[in-house]
């Protein structure tokens, strides 16, 4: 106990101390021969003749009520200061009333149960501020600039507007800006979420926090420090979290009318009858255990059911809002798709070669390169059992174009069409490049010596369960399903067609995604945003419900979101919506049970047929009823057991173009 008392401000410590005091008081009362759950200590006769134990137990219960009820009273006072009548006021008033009329067990039980319900909710709430630490870590702290003809390393915030910043291979871009010279490829996953590096040349925009995947760029700084896109992401997350913290929960809206009604009833009864004890009894009766635990117990059961299914719901308020979802905005990369590029097509353009030959030559050339698309080609070759038996004797990367290698004395070029200088023009190759680009894939041309022998299509493949997820969301009553992506319109349309989404927003920056969410909210929708990357954080925080793909998502997305789908299973999303709606239905049922109990007890007290002891027994019975009702949520339903579509292992899900068949 000493260690508990050392940290009195910790709510967990207060709750533990209160619980221990209640337990100790109960044991003392039972030893004395009195059932503390039956109430009415003043009328009880100790069977063992030990009144000292009763005095001690009553004292412990009063202390327990003070320990658990102190913060509740403070919260009630703060709410009244801003003209808000909360359920904390009713609990505080009922506790004081119970102590005044000698019902010490009731005072301790009401405060302890109420505090326990709040703590159970708070224990699951996201520590969203920790997400900002990772966002800040993405931003580079230094930059290399040219001053007076010399390269100088300075703090990123010390770069002047329009100053030229050098971005070398593997370095982070320290500022927002425009490329003025050089070519290279940037990994922009931290900003756009897209997995394939983007080629940059003079005139292209670049963003702080992105990483050079090859090449050398000279960038004119246009956004520095707080003016960068990354800094705005951090600011937007903070703003959205503060706004969401002010959202009213079901408990608060219910308390706004119920609390003053009960207090008014007690005051009127006291004035009419002149019986202060009757008024205090009505206050205590008006705050039964069933009412206190009706919502928290359903929340805990709903969150527990979700946890068993890999759905991490970070608080009761998020569970309540999820039941009202009418629109879902889905990030593409890493959410609807696998999040990593794979080979989708292998088109053979040489009569004397096979598909395996094209893959083999491409893989041999890429084996020793740092080309961004080397990995999917090597994975495809491995999946097909294509041996990479002869490695390149010489590899020359051509920034922004691809790689040229010498393999077994032959020149192999793998990259885009601009790489093919000196190679015989092939109209079929140009047509295949156009076809693959229109289908949302990245074409990689393979040339052997002086001729094009094939084209490899690379794309981020759609998850096997994405289409079923969209279908089940609509069946659950979601009226708008929107896909958001920083990728090109061609890629976005291709993915949307595969999953059955017709509302597509492409080429978006993080702030653009946030604006789409805000527009949906302005149209009257309760919006769920589903994403997995740093770039999704502002939209996740702004949406009514942010949902992170936790298994593969970044820590920022998981921490910022209100719900994390810890299994790599998109069908968890419609399950979460269904669970939220069932949980809110149970909340309402429990409130109805509690209100019916209150009405019956109030009528009984006024009529004179219900004593305090009887009232307490009814209280306890109603508590058991609402708990039993909430426990139903923990049962697994037939739909919960339905297996999701098989998830295809990364690096093995790829198909051969019809042109090869």
TrEMBL record:
Listed PROSITE patterns: ATPASE_E1_E2, COF_2
Coiled coil ranges: none
Single Gene Ontology MF annotation: ATPase-coupled monoatomic cation transmembrane transporter activity
Pfam family for this entry, one: Hydrolase
Stretches that traverse the bilayer: 52-73, 254-272, 278-304, 591-610, 616-634
Keyword annotations from UniProtKB, A to Z: ATP-binding, Cell membrane, Membrane, Metal-binding, Nucleotide-binding, Translocase, Transmembrane, Transmembrane helix
UniProt protein name: Haloacid dehalogenase
The organism of origin for this protein: Cellulomonas gelida
């Amino acid at each position: 106990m000493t260690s508990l008392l050392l940290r009195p401000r910790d709510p967990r410590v207060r709750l533990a101390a209160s619980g221990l005091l209640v337990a100790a008081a109960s044991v003392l009362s039972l030893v004395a021969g009195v059932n503390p759950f039956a109430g009415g200590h003043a009328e009880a006769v100790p069977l063992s003749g030990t009144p000292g134990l009763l005095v001690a137990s009553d004292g412990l219960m009063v202390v327990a009520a003070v320990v658990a009820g102190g913060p509740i009273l403070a919260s009630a006072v703060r709410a009244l200061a801003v003209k808000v009548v909360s359920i904390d006021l009713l609990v505080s008033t009922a506790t004081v009333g119970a102590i005044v009329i000698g019902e010490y067990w009731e005072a301790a039980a009401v405060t302890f149960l109420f505090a326990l319900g709040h703590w159970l909710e708070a224990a699951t709430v996201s520590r969203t501020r920790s997400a900002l630490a990772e966002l800040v870590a993405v931003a580079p702290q230094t930059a290399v600039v040219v001053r007076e003809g010399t390269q100088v390393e300075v703090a990123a915030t010390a770069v002047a507007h329009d100053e030229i910043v050098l971005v070398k291979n593997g370095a982070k871009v320290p500022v927002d800006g425009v490329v003025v010279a050089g070519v290279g490829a940037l990994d922009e996953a931290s900003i756009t979420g897209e997995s394939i590096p983007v080629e940059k040349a003079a005139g292209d925009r670049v963003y702080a926090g992105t990483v050079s995947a090859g090449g050398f760029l000279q960038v004119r700084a246009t956004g520095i420090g707080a003016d960068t896109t990354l800094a705005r992401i951090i600011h937007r997350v903070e703003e959205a979290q503060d706004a969401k913290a002010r959202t009213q929960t079901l408990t608060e809206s219910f308390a706004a009318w119920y609390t003053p009604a009960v207090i008014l009833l007690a005051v009127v009864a006291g004035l009419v009858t002149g019986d202060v004890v009757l008024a205090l009894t009505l206050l205590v009766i008006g705050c039964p255990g069933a009412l206190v635990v009706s919502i928290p117990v359903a929340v805990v059961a709903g969150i527990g059911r979700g946890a068993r299914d890999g759905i991490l719901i970070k608080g009761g308020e998020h569970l309540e809002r999820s039941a009202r979802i009418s629109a879902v905005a889905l990030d593409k990369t890493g959410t609807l798709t696998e999040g990593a590029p794979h080979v989708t097509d292998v088109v053979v353009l040489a009569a004397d070669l096979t598909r395996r030959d094209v893959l083999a030559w491409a893989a041999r050339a890429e084996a020793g390169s740092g080309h961004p698309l080397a990995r999917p080609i090597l994975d495809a070759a491995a999946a097909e059992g294509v041996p990479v038996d002869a490695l390149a004797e010489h590899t020359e990367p051509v920034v922004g174009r691809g790689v040229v290698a010498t393999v077994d004395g032959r020149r192999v070029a793998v990259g885009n069409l601009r790489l093919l200088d000196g190679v015989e023009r092939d109209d079929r190759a140009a047509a295949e490049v156009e076809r693959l680009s229109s289908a949302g894939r990245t074409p990689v041309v393979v040339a052997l010596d002086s001729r094009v022998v094939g084209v490899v299509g690379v794309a981020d493949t759609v998850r096997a369960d994405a289409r079923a997820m969209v279908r089940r969301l609509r069946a659950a009553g979601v009226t708008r399903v929107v896909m958001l992506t920083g990728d090109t319109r061609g890629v976005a349309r291709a993915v949307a067609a595969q999953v059955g989404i017709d509302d597509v927003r492409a080429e978006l920056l993080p702030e653009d995604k946030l604006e789409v969410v805000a527009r949906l909210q302005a149209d009257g929708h309760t919006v769920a945003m589903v994403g997995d990357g740093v770039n999704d954080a502002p939209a996740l925080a702004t949406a009514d419900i942010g949902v992170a793909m936790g298994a593969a998502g970044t820590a920022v997305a998981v921490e910022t979101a209100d719900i994390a789908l810890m299994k790599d299973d998109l069908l968890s999303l419609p399950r979460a919506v269904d669970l939220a709606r069932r949980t809110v239905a149970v909340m309402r049922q429990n409130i109805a049970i509690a209100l019916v109990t209150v009405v019956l007890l109030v009528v009984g007290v006024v009529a004179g047929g219900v004593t305090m002891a009887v009232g307490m027994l009814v209280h306890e019975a109603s508590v058991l009823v609402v708990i039993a009702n909430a426990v139903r949520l923990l049962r697994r339903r037939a739909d919960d057991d339905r297996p999701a579509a098989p998830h295809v292992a990364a690096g093995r899900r790829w198909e051969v173009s019809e042109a090869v068949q």
